[in-house]
Amino acid sequence: MPIVMFTKLFKGRPLEQVAADLAALGFDGADLLIRPGHQLEPASPAAIAPAVRLFADAGLPVAMATTDLVDPDDPPTARVLGACADAGVRLIRLGYFRSDPATSYAAAFEAARRRLDGLERMAARLGVRLALQLHGRTIHASGAQAAALLRERDPAHLAAYPDPGNQAVQDGREDWRYTFEVLRPWLACVGVKNGGWFPAALNATGQRTWQSGWLGVADGMVAWDEILPHLAAQGFAGVFTLHSHYEAMPFAQALDQTRVDLNFVRRLLAGTFGT
After folding, report:
1. Total structural domains in the chain?
2. Quick check: helix, strand or coil at residue 229?
3. Distances (CA, A) of 142 to 138, 243, 253
4. Is residue 100 classed exposed, middle or buried when 0-12, 13-18 and 19+ CB atoms within 10 A define those classes?
5. Residues linked to residue 30 through DSSP beta bridges, in sequence order
6. Calpha distance 89→4 (Å, rounded)
7. What residues have CB less than 8 Å from 204, skipping those under 6 apart?
8. Domain for residue 237, yes or no?
9. Which runs of E-coded beta strand occur in 119-235?
10. How big is the CA angle at 142 (ends 119 and 77), to the nearest 5 degrees?
């Protein structure tokens, strides 16, 4: 069960520094973000292989990549997925099929299914797995919603990416046991982060409003002390990708909190949290 770090926190920093920081923190590898405005961009797929080699030279295999790709007919999709496959990155997160109040769920679902048809064929041709992440404001925010999109899909090509932190802080809340059970056939990776909700001001009607925020992995609403031992006991052999959404912190402090998070996760997986 490799524990890798999602590289979003390192926006604007040289990849050499990113690799050095991840190695110093003690991660097993990287979840490499490919997104406009970051070190790797979908418009420059030729940069993917050198980046993967750079991380490998630092002892950090790129276990997965994160993209915003959703359209098999969009030319960058084939180029980026092909570059990842050529570089040996076999697990790639897709983008989001958004929910929209102006569009019925049925219409959004059918549009997403048609795109997934093409993406599944592309994944089979390239020999990669494309992961659907549970994320707020999408039609795959919960395990039940994601399972509906993945039903009858080949897990070798389309995979599930539960993210209990997103479910707690955004939408898609359901019992975590159900999330993992319903997605079991497609389970490939798990996003690890935590957060919570806090009472805020009253609005003009007198209704209390609430606001959310990201917290340390040990400090939020997600019961990682139950989820991680459960997954270990179930023999989960996929990837844990740790998300450090601490961009508002000074960078050194964000790294310190990330180190705390990683050590907490390792203790839980090893069953040494009581020692």
Report:
1. 1
2. helix
3. 9, 18, 32
4. exposed
5. 5, 62
6. 13
7. none
8. yes
9. 129-133, 158-161, 189-192, 194-202, 208-215
10. 20
- For residue 4, list its beta bridge partners: 29, 241
Residues 6+ apart with CB under 8 A from 187: 159, 160, 162, 180, 236, 238
Task: Select from 128, 138, 137 the least CA-distant residue to 159.
Answer: 128
Place of tokens 């209390």: 208
What's the start-to-end Cα distance of the chain, in Å?
22
Bridge-based pairing of strands 158-161 and 129-133 is: parallel
Q: In which domain, by residue range, is 145 found?
A: 3-270
Q: Cα–Cα distance between 268 and 209 in angstroms, integer?
A: 34
- Which tokens go with 10? 């390192």
Q: Tell me, what DSSP letter sits at residue 258?
A: H
What is the structure's pLDDT at 224? 98
User: Has residue 275 been placed in a domain?
Assistant: no
* CA quadruple 267, 257, 41, 118: dihedral sign: positive
Q: Which residues lie below 8 Å from residue 96, measured CB to CB, with a gap of 6+?
A: 68, 70, 133, 135, 137, 138, 140
**Residue 264 host element (H or E):** helix 251-270
- What pTM does this model have? 0.96
φ, ψ dihedrals at 30, nearest 5°: -130, 150
pLDDT tens digit string along 190-235?
A: 999 999 999 999 999 999 999 999 999 999 999 999 999 999 999 9
Check which CATH number belongs to the domain holding 189 and give it. 3.20.20.150
Closest CA to 190 of 229, 135, 240: 240
**Is the pLDDT score of 261 beyond 50?**
yes
22 vs 4: CA distance, rounded Å: 9
